[in-house]
């Protein structure tokens, strides 16, 4: 069945209930592409990035194969950009909310948008960034041309060579494909990608050991069905000595975590070189949450911007960040997992922490891309995610843009064994 391959530099898409696209005005260019061509391209990705389960039991195997390929390439982009980040002040730009955004944020979004549009042109993208700040700064300051050129260079170096000539405007439009004005949903279920180009940008800027995540998820009919997280600075403790600067130690850094509904959560190390891909099935390791079932013995995470006394559990437990400190049944261990929510989801899905608690605040919107991919990775590893009342996170609560979620009280992510008990304790303290 043919699919429409769309090039929409300046048109708004309206997405209907079954992934249908409606056009308020005619696009400038519409060309036909056959599904067979898309299948062939994804098959190449699947062959190079062999998944740990067979496609027969995975309805969205094509989408996951493509997501794995592009997220790994995006992680390489991040590493390359970070090497030269502080040599160019133009690589850092302040967004309206004053959080730092870099060449890597824009570059990752453009790269992933271009690849997904090529392979799955009918599936829209919901993502964090848009090019408005780039375009406005470019108009006001000639020196900002360097920033756009840096983004363009980072993307061109990693995008698949499909024989077409890529321009800076193509890259800016690719960024905007995931922006807030790119797509409008109706109230019916829909299929769409959710991308956080860099979760934990402050961690990305902080130092070599700080964790940050590239997170990509596929939502189908309100449920996350596919998820990929890449974390270039993740340290494999069973392989690496942090004080060892040898090549072997460097190769122990970085993790790629993948999930498919009903197929589990799996991880492997990031490829050391994008040109030398890992292909063996046995490089994948099945991920499971920890088995802690005693609340005060669990390891907890909270957002860097919040303190333990903001969490209802503080009515029952004190906290310490010292793992060597003897604890009694009235004190819990609070881990520092650097910046970003997805880092915490990654930590729980890999069994290194038991609980992540986030308080919803009136002054801060909770964005879907900070949670979507984490939800499926934790779920398929045996854990559970809900709001503070125990209800699942509603990714479709934002009826028109799918960008904001409204969890009652906040978000609770656990290893599953502790979930009901912690919901009960939170509910008793939270009004």
UniProtKB/TrEMBL annotation:
Cofactor(s), names only, from the UniProt record: Mg(2+)
GO MF annotations, alphabetized: 3'(2'),5'-bisphosphate nucleotidase activity; metal ion binding
Keywords: Hydrolase, Magnesium, Metal-binding
GO terms classed as biological process: sulfate assimilation
Binding site for Mg(2+): 128, 196, 198-199, 370
One Pfam family this sequence matches: Inositol_P
InterPro entries, sorted: Inositol_monoP_metal-BS, Inositol_monoP_superfamily, Inositol_monophosphatase-like
Homology family: Belongs to the inositol monophosphatase superfamily.
Protein name listed in UniProt: PAP-specific phosphatase, mitochondrial
Species assigned in the record: Zea mays (Maize)
Lineage: Eukaryota, Viridiplantae, Streptophyta, Embryophyta, Tracheophyta
């Amino acid at each position: 069945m043919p699919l429409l391959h769309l090039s929409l530099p300046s048109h708004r898409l309206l997405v209907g209930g079954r992934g249908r696209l409606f056009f308020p005005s005619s696009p400038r260019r519409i060309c036909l592409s056959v599904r067979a061509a898309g299948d062939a391209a994804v098959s190449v990705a699947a062959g190079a990035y062999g998944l740990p389960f067979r496609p027969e039991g995975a309805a969205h195997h094509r989408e996951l194969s493509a997501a794995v390929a592009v997220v790994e390439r995006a992680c390489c982009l991040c590493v390359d950009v970070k090497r030269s980040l502080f040599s160019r002040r133009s690589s850092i730009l302040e967004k309206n909310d004053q959080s730092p955004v870099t060449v890597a944020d824009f570059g990752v979004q453009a790269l992933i948008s271009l690849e997904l549009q090529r392979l799955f042109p009918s599936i829209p993208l919901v993502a964090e960034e848009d090019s408005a700040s780039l375009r406005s700064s470019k108009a006001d300051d000639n020196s900002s041309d360097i920033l756009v050129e840096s983004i363009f260079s980072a993307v061109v170096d990693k995008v698949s060579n499909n024989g077409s000539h890529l321009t800076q405007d193509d890259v800016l439009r690719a960024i905007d494909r995931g922006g807030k004005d790119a797509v409008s949903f109706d109230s019916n279920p829909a299929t769409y990608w959710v991308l956080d180009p860099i979760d934990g940008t402050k961690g990305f800027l902080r130092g070599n050991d700080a964790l940050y995540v590239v997170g990509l998820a596929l939502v189908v009919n309100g449920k996350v069905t596919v998820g990929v997280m890449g974390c270039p600075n993740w340290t494999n403790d069973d392989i690496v000595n942090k004080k060892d600067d040898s090549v072997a130690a460097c190769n122990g850094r970085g993790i790629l975590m993948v999930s498919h509904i009903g197929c589990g959560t799996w991880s492997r190390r990031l490829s050391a070189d994008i040109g030398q891909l890992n292909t063996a099935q046995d490089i994948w390791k099945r991920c499971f949450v920890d088995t802690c079932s005693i609340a005060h013995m669990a390891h907890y995470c909270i957002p860097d911007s919040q303190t333990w006394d903001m969490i209802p559990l503080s009515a029952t437990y004190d906290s310490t960040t010292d793992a060597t400190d003897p604890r009694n049944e009235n004190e819990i261990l609070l881990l520092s997992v650097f910046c970003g929510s997805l880092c915490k989801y990654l930590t729980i899905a890999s069994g290194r922490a038991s609980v992540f608690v986030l308080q919803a605040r009136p002054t801060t919107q909770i964005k879907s891309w900070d949670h979507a991919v984490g939800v499926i990775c934790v779920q398929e590893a045996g854990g559970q995610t809900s709001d503070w009342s125990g209800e699942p996170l509603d990714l479709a609560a934002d009826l028109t843009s799918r960008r904001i979620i409204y969890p009652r009280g906040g978000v609770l992510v656990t290893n599953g064994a502790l979930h009901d008990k912690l919901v009960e304790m939170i509910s008793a303290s939270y009004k």
